[in-house]
């Protein structure tokens, strides 16, 4: 049994954002360590035969409405970003670089960085597919912009993200967010409360 | 403002079944009339470009696991049916026939019939795509089997189902179940509790 909660998300997924604002409280309540796993849905959709949510007729319009309604229910700031969806490769690689660092201070920046990227995109309307935007967000958190820029080009960092996506697929992750607790996958921001109940009851 | 709760579902949808066991309590709590709307996802998927859930790689395996897990959470009897999915044309047309009848006793049979069809498929393992199975279920409820058999062949009944599916698409229904309250659509069995909160709070 792992004592962690693993949270898989794509920065370009509104539900990934909405869940990111609530999953830490669940982890804290149950004494679990939260592990962030940025992934790229584009790569996963190639395997599963799915497409970005908002590209489906009818379902896409519902999703655009539901993003905002779900945000209002949980009192989470949300503005539908444009462009949308975007490729979050740079932001996701930056997470891999922070995770892989031997500097504990950089490791500790991962959580604030995840929240800052989400906020930049879903609250402030910045285009986080732009590497410069990602670097500036990192800099504001006190992360050395030049070191990060170099890191984003490292083959090891690129490989780490590829490997993370492959491992997520292997685990059975097909959407964002997916929360993994003790080997159980829960897909959806609307399942965060179910994860809480699962931990309350020790499963069912 | 409508005073009803409209519940759109495909008999072949496990989540449609799981939601059907909980939606009446929500309607009753809020003094709303519940209206059952059987639809055919096959026709809807042609418009939305989706496919049956369990046909998607990875996502399909998750769904098969989640059906059972969701049933356990709510203590709903559930056995994964085989064959699955099936075409629920006969059962859905039977609902249209019950709805359209000028006999109030037949109208009143709609709710027991919906539950009996779901139970036959998801608890007792009967193949509800078979018209004879549907007729026998109806007969057990005291519905005249021969009259229903004749009704299933009526063009007006066939047209009523086609029209119901077209109206659902027009309304924005793309999945099962979809609960509609005061013009708001909520997709998913896992959103039944959100519908309850929506009514508690008068929206948000």
Structural notes for this entry:
- 2 copies of one chain form a homodimer.
- Chain A is α+β, with helices and mostly antiparallel strands and 204 residues long.
- Chain A has one domain: Glutaredoxin, CATH 3.40.30.
- In chain A, 55% of the residues lie in helices and 10% in strands.
- Chain A contains 11 helices and 4 strands, in the order βααβααααααααββα.
- A 4-stranded mixed β-sheet of chain A has the order 2-1-3-4, with helices on both faces.
- In chain A, a hairpin with a 2-residue loop joins strand 3 and strand 4.
- In chain A, helix 5 packs across helix 10 and helix 8 crosses helix 9 (145-153).
- The longest helix of chain A is centred in the last third of the chain and has 17 residues, at 155-171.
- The A-B interface holds A 44, 47-51, 56-59, 61-62, 65-66, 69, 72-73, 169, 172-175, 184-185, 187-188, 190-191, 194, 197, 204 and B 47-51, 56-59, 61-62, 65-66, 69, 72-73, 169, 172-175, 184-185, 187-188, 190-191, 194, 197, 204.
- Quaternary state reads homodimer
The low-pLDDT segments of chain A are none
Reading the helices and strands of chain A in chain order gives EHHEHHHHHHHHEEH
Could you tell me the strand content of chain A as a percent range? 5-15%
| Widest β-sheet, arrangement of strands of chain A | 2-1-3-4
- By DSSP (H or I, 4+ residues per run), the number of helices of chain A equals 11
Could you name the CATH homologous superfamily of chain A? Glutaredoxin
Any idea what the radius of gyration of chain A is?
16 Å
User: Looking at CATH, which topology of chain A would you report?
Assistant: Glutaredoxin
Overall pLDDT confidence of chain A? 97
| Percent helix range of chain A | 40-55%
Question: How many domains make up the 3D coordinates of chain A?
Answer: 1
Second rung of CATH, namely the architecture of chain A: 3-Layer(aba) Sandwich
Total E-strand runs of chain A = 4
Biggest beta-sheet profile of chain A: 4 strands, mixed
Classified by CATH, the class of chain A is: Alpha Beta
The most extensive interface between chains reads: A-B, 31 and 30 residues
Describe the global form of chain A: globular
């Amino acid at each position: 049994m792992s004592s962690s909660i693993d949270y898989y998300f794509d920065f370009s997924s509104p539900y990934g954002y909405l869940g990111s604002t609530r999953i830490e409280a669940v982890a804290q309540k149950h004494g679990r360590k939260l592990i962030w796993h940025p992934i790229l849905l584009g790569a996963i959709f190639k395997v599963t035969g799915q497409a970005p949510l908002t590209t489906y007729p009818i379902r896409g319009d519902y999703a655009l409405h539901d993003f905002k309604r779900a945000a209002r229910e949980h009192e989470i700031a949300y503005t539908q970003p444009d462009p949308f969806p975007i490729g979050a490769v740079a932001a996701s690689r930056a997470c891999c670089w922070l995770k892989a660092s031997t500097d504990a201070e950089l490791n500790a920046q991962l959580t604030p960085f995840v929240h800052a990227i989400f906020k930049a995109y879903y609250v402030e309307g910045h285009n986080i597919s732009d590497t410069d935007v990602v670097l500036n967000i990192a800099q504001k958190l006190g992360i050395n912009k030049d070191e990060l820029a170099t890191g984003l080009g490292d083959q090891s960092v690129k490989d780490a993200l590829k490997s993370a996506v492959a491992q997520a697929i292997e685990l059975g992750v097909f959407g964002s967010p997916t929360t993994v607790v003790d080997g159980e996958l829960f897909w959806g921001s609307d399942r965060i409360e179910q994860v809480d109940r699962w931990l309350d009851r020790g499963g069912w």
